[in-house]
Every structure is written in structure tokens, then in C-alpha cells.
Task: structure prediction
Amino acid sequence: MSAMKMRRSLADLEKEFRQQTEIEERRRMQLERTAAVRSRQRWHARERKRSSKRFYVLTATLALTAILVTVAMFATLYLLLV
Result:
């Protein structure tokens, strides 16, 4: 009779072990998904920051070019008219 009790308790232990293993596996997969989402969010934030820096540099370059061309044009015009 004690062998039956032992088998039953071992079966219960195995069942509990399998359940715990499944729970841990689900938790691990959830953590992986969460980490991937956070990684993508950080990547998007870096790209957004980099893109805005490029935009400001482009805008400043265009403005500076327009100013330089205007100054050069009027300087040339002045030299031609003098």
C-alpha cells in the first residue's frame, strides 16, 4: 500500500513540476517579448532624435546658402555698377 502512495505522490510531483515548467516557459517568452518591444521603442526614439538633428542641419545649411548667395549677388551687382 505504501508503494501506491509513493507512486501517487511522485505522479503529483511530476505533474506539479510540468506545470511549473510551463509557467516558467510562458514567463520567459513574455519577458523576451517585453524586451523586444522596449528595444524597438529605444531604436525608434534614437532614429527620431537623429532625424530631427539632420532636419535642423539641412534647414541651417539651406538658410546659410540663401544668405551667402544673396550677399554674393549684391556684391557682384555693386561691382558691376561702380
